[in-house]
Amino acid sequence: MVICVLCVLVRQIEQLIRCEPISEEEVKTLCIKAREILIEEANVQVVDSPVTICGDIHGQFWDMMELFKVGGSCPETNYLFMGDFVDRGFYSVETFLLLLALKVRYPERMTLIRGNHESRQITQVYGFYDECQRKYGSSNVWRWCCEVFDYLALGAIVDGRVFCVHGGLSPNLSGIDQIRAIDRKQEVPHDGPMCDLLWSDPDDIAGWGLSPRGAGFLFGADITKQFAHQNAIDLIARAHQLAMEGYKLMFDQMIVTVWSAPNYCYRMGNSSSSPRWNFETDIPDLTGKVVVVTGGNSGLGFATIQHLVTHGAKVYMASRNEAKAKAAIATLELGKGSVEFWQLDLSDVRQAKKAAETFLEKETRLDILINNAALTVVPYAKTHDDIQDVMMVNHISTFVWTQTLVPLIEKTAKEESTDVRIVNVSSEAVRWLGDVVRYRNREDFNDEHAGWFAAMKRYGRSKLTSILYTKELQRRFDEKKVPILCLSLHPGTINTEGNLNLASRQGWVLGAILTWMSHHLTPSASQGAYTHVFAAVAPDVRAHPDIFGGAFLMPPAEITNAVIKPAEDPELAKELWETTEVLLKEIGVELT
């Protein structure tokens, strides 16, 4: 019987290594067995070296597999993971269950401690709950995993000299022995020592400070030195914060932050990413190519233009504000290319159509169209056409602008040696929507989404159209056998003016947290443009049209079909297209 149980566990590990979920009943059994092991462990686990210490994984399964490839597989290598196994990534279920299975199989070789995302409250917001619902059709797997979270250790001590914790220190804890006395078998509290261990951050301050996260504290070098001296340790290893190089040393090397989700740094991805893709060497020569980028006078649009123009493209910066656009153009390093301003006001569908028609009169080709401009999270308002503004800008006007340009795009695609693409920038905000979304009529387009996070849901509804429009447009091109590739993408959480403006509208508590995260935890616009540029010009995309045509990309250019169910519904995509055409007729705008 023991052999049989072991065989099942080995088979589950092999299955999870292939990123294939195990059955719901197997998850339940695995979680029960894991709790039996974890309940015997101390709040602060004692670990002997050699051991490989890892930071946040956040559901980035293929990055974790790359880590095992580099560091060695378990049990050949001892591992200590410092929490945040789930949320944000698309494979949180497979990531956590594989680590759990390895823990059950090799309990002395795999140490797992709790992060702030191993929480019922947090996982209901940042993706793990929704992923469990999508993959298993119920909340059972999420509930069983959350029960395991409550049994995870709060820290570890390696060779008696290296203290490992997810977040940081607490003003209520002066010694490691005090951590051992905490009752850890509970949901993460909103405050107190246990909360601080999972949420606090080191900072260049003296003493203690309030954390802009809204939980935990900031602590300085003096606090770190005092804690290290009192507990006779040489180093504090922690996770919790993005470190662009994978780790960051602070306070005369008394503390190190470890980050193990390299996709955040745009350095590694799974097989549908391009591990060898490099801004400096892999963008092809774009001389002779004509590109239009909407909303390009700042943020990701501007950064995208900079990458493209450097490699010889003739780029049109299509935006509403001419003064801002020309000021932005003046700061670009043009390289072999050129940039021109093009007037485009997406708040008025008639102006959008006129802008496209005028472009047809000027240019004889259009190789790449990147629809980047958008309204983000704004108060509910309607245009003079009685359609809410976020739907008008993000979908209807963008639809008319693009469809008016399609004849020129198709003409370019029929020429020899061309690689023509349409890239529509969407957003992971679609996750705020449920599994039932419709675009049947004006009422659906004007849905206010009353209740909590209504503005975010309205924004998500408008950006779901970008994914659906892309898929339906690709289907129509394929039907006509026109070799145009259409892709949509989520650029990631980037430190841009748009995200800072979004943060400022979330109230002072959440706004402060989002603002701090935008400044400290997110890549720059130049780094964030990776997915834009990959979708627009990467040779791998053209080499695999059956894979990338109509695809939705997540940073760094990782194909996913698991955003929300409506995003994969071809009938909903057709419904959106047909209703858009009906609404355009109602407001007197005809597509040629």
TrEMBL record:
EC number of this enzyme: 3.1.3.16
Protein name: Serine/threonine-protein phosphatase
Record keywords: Hydrolase, Manganese, Metal-binding, Signal
PROSITE patterns cross-referenced by the UniProt entry: SER_THR_PHOSPHATASE
Family stated for the protein in its record: Belongs to the PPP phosphatase family.
Gene Ontology MF terms: metal ion binding; protein serine/threonine phosphatase activity
A Pfam family: Metallophos
Keyword Metal-binding assigned: yes
Species per Swiss-Prot/TrEMBL record: Antrodiella citrinella
